[in-house]
Amino acid sequence: MSSKVEFPFPFTSDHYEYTNNSSPLIPARTVTVSSNYVEEVRLKRKLLEENHERCYRSLPISLESQWETLLLVFRELATYEPEHFSFKRRGNTYVFTNHLLQEEETFVYRDHSSIDFEPLDLVGRHVQEDLIVMGDRHDGLFLEAGQLCFPSNWSLTFVLGMEFKTIHTPVPAIAEFIEKVERFITRIRPNTAWERKNWSITISHKLDTPLETYSDWGKLRYHVTKENAGELVNLRVEVQRLFRLPVTNDILFSIHTYLLPLNELVANDDWLKKFYTNVKTLPQELADYKGISLYKPELLGFLEKALKRRKIER
Amino acid sequence: MKDRYQVKVEQIKQVTPQIKAFTLSSETAVDPFGAGAHLTLHLPMGDRQYSLINNPLEMTNDYQIAVKKVSANGGSHYLHEHLEVGDSVLVSGPDNYFPVHLEAQHVIFFAAGIGITPFLSMMPYLSTLGKTFELHYAVKNVESCPFYEELLKYTEQVFFYSGSREEKKKQVREALENRKIGTHVYVCGPETFMEMVVDTTRELRFPSRVVHEERFRPAAKIRNPKPFRVTVNGGDELLVKENESLLERLLDEGYPVSYACRMGICGSCEVTVCGGEVIHSDTFLTEKEKENKMLSCVSRGVGEIAINVVETNSM
């Protein structure tokens, strides 16, 4: 499958809307294996090796949910991608085989001495997704563990242990809305998954844009021109899934990040038109938050040129 | 969470003359569950919820429930008298409105009678995790109480109450006094017993977030429900008949309202009320929320009301 075919285009209407846009996922899946699997998993592992403290954090209270996540994701991979993964139980011992990477993981459930990493850190090395465990503590959802290699301008170290509403403080005009979202999440039933798409823009084809390396990638925003936008500007879409872990009653939040260079995006008339109108109608504070304001005129100029070339009415 | 599916009765055990335990299994993999979870059984006389009593960490593709025979023609009678090993039962779930909170430093369970069932999964679960807990169990007679043998495993942690109401009240208070911060309280049993425990936690100033009630029974049912008219999103006018819920009518008309428990517990089917009087019978909304919201599964309008239904999702 080519990367363009599987790209989860996020816009459904011709103007910008701020909604929760979550829908239930049946069957309840937490991860997806895309055509970039091997390449992205290798990149994840490289980042984990070089910057473990930046990419992996956990609190002791998360350990039960981590084990539950490990079992859940390994089971899911073997169930839905049997040609690539298998998962067997021999007595107390589980064996997970990753045929794509020619690897085997053997462990005893809930026995920490049987694995080299924490359970979430281990299972995260076999999926493209970033994995976050949110503890449902009755008076709020708290970020209690995360393997985060591909963040869009946020820091795991900064948010570890924070409550859901506090984490989202930087998002503009969100206070009332985020309370509803949190309530929505607290109502997700066990073994049930919900999915939403969230979009932003990355300058350069780079998945790992943590706050910690902002000085490296942030400055590229000054380099966008009408001429180079097709190559430099990428639509970044996060397919975000929320799953209620049945045993601990915590929430597993998975983020699968996709990047699409604008040169590929504009080849699809419908995508081009929708993307253009959404960027154009994006409120100023959100354009600022998403970092688009710096190059919005150049971006719109590039898209207008493409629309004209393809004879699409604006 | 799975919608309706079949399970098979693998084993039936007579626990006491009034209580039977059923083991339900499936040829396909059943979903994991957490301590305090329940299964919904779809029986000829309606839906019934029963707590799962097996240890979630040692579940081997089966669900166990314990049922007390309470009336001559209800669900429990059906399960006791008509269900046999090998029979199929239509179920859904498991779901959980009584989860165990792992942030607790110590847990105190209060149970009365058959209210012991959710704690039968919580106790082995917390034991496996190495967490501390104690059970205070009000019974008529200690030796013939449900699951007496099982409870002997926890001799140091189990306290039986079999005296008068006044004596029980005193014992509950003593059990709750001088507890450390971080102690969580779980209570399940008859309404009067639950109230007694919860009232005592309030008198002793326990924060409400550490006191957990098994709100298992549906919210107060509206007696003699009457039909009412509803205007939806300022357009459609619907009539909700006396024998149906607003949720059922909305779903029949094609409104994408999400729902889960259908008992006024989970809050999924909330709609916005723009006008008219509503009789609330849920246990989810706060008093403030009731000013302009209702749960369409159990609450009803009086005469004529107007509501808004969000088109996209459950928010």
Order of helices and strands of chain B: EEEEEHEEHEHEHEHEEEHEEE
CATH class of the largest domain in chain B: Alpha Beta
So, CATH architecture of the largest domain in chain B? 3-Layer(aba) Sandwich
What are the low-pLDDT stretches of chain B, counting only 5+ consecutive residues below 50?
none
Q: Count structural domains of chain A.
A: 1
Largest interface: A-B, 28 and 29 residues
Q: What summary fits the major beta sheet of chain B?
A: 6 strands, antiparallel
Output mean pLDDT of chain B: 90
Structural features, described:
- The complex is a heterodimer of chains A (314) and B (315).
- Chain A has one domain (27-308).
- Chain A is built from 13 helices and ten strands.
- Chain A has helices at residues 37-50, 52-55, 63-80, 119-123, 156-159, 164-167, 175-186, 214-217, 229-232, 262-265, 269-280, 284-289, 296-309, and strands spanning 23-25, 56-58, 85-90, 93-98, 103-108, 130-136, 141-147, 193-203, 233-244, 251-261.
- In chain A, strands 1-8-9-10-6-7-2 form a seven-stranded antiparallel beta sheet.
- In chain A, a hairpin with a 6-residue loop joins strand 9 (233-244) and strand 10.
- Chain B is α/β, with parallel strands linked by helices.
- Chain B is built from six helices and 16 strands.
- Chain B has helices at residues 75-82, 117-129, 148-152, 165-176, 191-203, 246-252, and strands spanning 5-16, 19-25, 38-43, 46-51, 62-68, 88-95, 106-112, 133-138, 158-161, 183-188, 211-213, 228-232, 237-240, 270-279, 293-295, 300-308.
- A six-stranded antiparallel beta sheet of chain B has the order 4-3-6-1-2-5, with helices on one face. In chain B, strands 9-8-7-10-11 form a five-stranded parallel beta sheet, with helices on both faces.
- In chain B, helix 2 (117-129) links the parallel strand 7 (106-112) and strand 8.
- In chain B, helix 4 crosses helix 5.
- The two termini of chain B are 19 Å apart.
- The model of chain B has no long low-confidence stretch (mean pLDDT 90).
- The chains are: A alpha+beta (314), B alpha/beta (315).
- Chain A binds chain B through residues 19-24, 61, 64, 68, 110, 135-139, 180-181, 183-184, 187, 189-192, 246-249, and chain B through 1-2, 31-35, 37, 56-57, 94-96, 99-103, 129, 209, 258, 260, 266-268, 312-315.
